[in-house]
Amino acid sequence: MAAAPEPGRPHPLGATPGPGGVNFSVWSRHASRVELVLFDRAGGRPSRVLPLDPARHRTYHYWHAFVPGLAPGQLYGWRAHGPFDPARGHRFDGEKLLLDPYGRAVAVPPGYDRAAAGRPGDDAATAMKSVVADLSRYDWEGDAPLRRPFSRTVIYELHVRGFTRHPSSGVAEARRGTYAGLVERIPHLLDLGVTAVELLPVFAFDPQDAPAGRTNYWGYAPVSFFAPHPGYAAAPGPLGALDEFRDMVKALHRAGIEVILDVVYNHTAEGNEEGPTFSFRGLDNFAYYLLDQDWSRYANYSGCGNTLKAQHPTTRRLILDSLRYWVAEMHVDGFRFDLASVLSRDEAGQPQGNPPIVWEIESDPLLAGTKLIAEAWDAAGLYQVGRWVGDAWREWNGRFRDDVRSFLKGDPGTVGRFASRLFASPDIYLADAREPDQAVNFVTCHDGFTLNDLVSYQRKHNEANGQGNRDGGDDDRAWNCGVEGPSDDPAVEALRARQVRNFLAVTLLSTGVPMIAMGDEARRTQGGNNNAYCQDGELSWLDWRLVERHAGLRRFVRTLVGLRHAFDPTAEEDEVSLSEFLERSHVQWHGVRLGAPDWGPESRSLAVGFQALDGSVRIHCLFNAFWEALPFELPPAESGWRLLVDTGVPAPGDASDWDAAPTVEGRSYLAQARSVVVLGASS
């Protein structure tokens, strides 16, 4: 006969294996009765149901028990009984199996059914289960986060599954679309020269949180803040994802590449008041979620049905413990916070000037040195780019994306804003003591058009999503170069290729932290779909045949990354502030004539001269967004100018390493229509 549960202890939360058994602890303030449910397999009925006696197994709001005889690999879940009273914020359902909020692994049964978690009745057989894990069994072999400064960082945003799922990836079928598959393609990342990967969500998520017949592909539907997504593991068994994820991190670190996680602490997959009960709703709905004024509905600042109550003490602790876990136990190097502005809303949903959770993340000693990147807006219109609090945080610069897109496609009245984006957006960040790398600069990311589609489509084509093309943004600032979609016209194709290089050149050579999206170096297309969150297929996967087809573009990216490192103005002075950087950088603005920049509304050209902080390198950049070639006057250079980049020249002349760059003769340079030119001189 199985041994009865002992009282156990409230700390630590989650399932903690120890000598002779496992300690379980979960928080629920308003539950009247809690049961620990054990399973022998993911798709089976419970093997044991252990009711917890409040007199023996509850301390304050923590329910806990030590169960002798259990070991790592044990599957389990919770049931919490209490009031179902939505008007008072309570949604307990004692028939629903609940994931442990602190569970380190998640097992998905063969018959997993999201709908069952939203219907009345027992869902134990089809529900996801938590798994007991012993983290101490893994050998890190001396691995540690790399701690590379932001000033020397080039980010590559990628989707773990989409990176190698396509049959052309060259990865064995069993490992395609997995953490292990990503490891096999590390040489591609090294070839590009990127220094960090930013992984779209890898927290365990609900793939069924999508329109009927489709899959949640991006992963912005978390069910756990501690468990790596099991669907990305090639390794068998409920604990396979833990080791395989850590193997991936270790391999990336050995290659000198940091790992940044796109984390979703703004909502969960439980959706709105009509959604399923997976975990948080069934344990203590009032504590975990922001509720609307009548409390029977959810506040929806995330656009995904619910919003985490990030300022509640229990939820704040959950977020901090999750971050600490991914750094200490999983060795990740940083985090990009999806819809980070949600974290700044108080328990009434109002923005706070100094949100406690943001400062707690910044000041936590275990997180010191970890990269923190905020997407400083949310789905309810709160936009905090340039106003995000904290000294350690960097921000996704959405204005860089918008203004660079507008200028390079030739919109009037954009030259001034474009100039600001080139040099760390001082109009946004100079008011505070920010650093030159405050902004993470990007033109494309997972959300929106790919770079190829940005220059190939005028409007979105999201019909495949099944929402009547109503989903996705409508302000892409895209230009199809004269033809909607694919074209066999050589002139159209040449213009698109040039525009792609223009965007990459501006992104990779501007002051700030550059980020490029997976496949943009190979002109990956989504057929004009700018919201492919529910498209788990070849529409979203990286087709590696494109990587070979566009080898010249890959070489262009690699060369630009090398040039960036060669004349990085902050490479040796990581603590230079933005104001100091601008004061000491000797920036001179020009137009087609030296010293005469045209800031007028009809201007579509700009030149800028720049000298590195140590005076050793001079750079002169020409930007021609006009539809005709323009001659630009050049300043004298004692050692002569070298042509580093010219997107108007066919490959391989479009970019050269410093030593191989040809010299430029004459006192002017003809910049081709819609081109970017970079000249360099050394003293």
What does this structure look like?
The protein is of the alpha/beta class and 683 residues long. The protein has three domains: 124 residues, Sandwich (Immunoglobulin-like); 297 residues, Alpha-Beta Barrel (TIM Barrel), CATH 3.20.20.80; 105 residues, Golgi alpha-mannosidase II (Immunoglobulin-like, Sandwich). Helix content is 21%, strand content 19%. The chain is built from 16 helices and 27 strands. The chain has an eight-stranded parallel barrel. The chain has a six-stranded antiparallel sheet with strand order 20-21-22-27-24-25, with helices on one face. Strands 4-3-7-11-10 form a five-stranded antiparallel sheet. Strand 1 and strand 2 form a beta hairpin.
Quick tags:
683 residues, alpha/beta, Immunoglobulin-like, 8-stranded parallel beta barrel, 6-stranded antiparallel β-sheet, 27 strands
